[in-house]
Design goal:
Layout (H helix, E strand, L loop, with lengths): L2 H29 L31 H5 L4 H8 L38 H7 L8 H9 L1 H4 L13 H13 L12 H7 L29
Amino acid sequence: MDSNEVNKLLAGFLGTCFVIFSVGIVSNSLFASPAPEKPGFAIVAAEPTEGGPAAPAAPSKPIAELLATANVEAGSAVFKKCQACHSGEKGGPNKVGPDLWDLVDRPVAEHEGFAYSAGMKTFSNGGAEKWTYDNLNHFLTSPKKFVAGTAMGFAGLPKDEDRANVIAFLRTLSDNPKPLPAPGAAADATAKPAEGAAKPAEAAKPAEAAKPAEPAKPAQ
């Protein structure tokens, strides 16, 4: 084999390597997928700190005050966030979560056909606990903080306006919507004693002083 053939073989080998190397560079530039600066969707849920369970999140305003200015149409828009897991139709199907028709004042963890988490069953207290306006307000603020052990993965609605609007909308999902709470009613109720409660005993009146005995009249 002469030197010309060896040179041709080396040139062919080097040319092949150059082509493969060039194709690799072009492919990396075309199909590279850099990480986005911000994720497209993130669910922010605060984790309880060590040393015990976190205290339930407290809404900034009473629900009666919030509902007084709530907007049902805006609540319908907020409810779209819930529709991936809940239906809101009468007789609607259970999904990841139970159907929310006629939810207000419904006993907690007692919707037919839905398997509730152990945490929700404990919170229900055997059906004694209901989805009152106040409970809904606290739960929607932070589900996992209000009901320990709930399987609901939604982080909550931190804005008062959003919670009030969606609760006002949930109220309409009923044949007989429950009355709205009157602002200040809760405070008035706590100030008044319960009916039938025993009245405080009246202070005993001081005993009347004994009158001195009249002197005996002399015998006539």
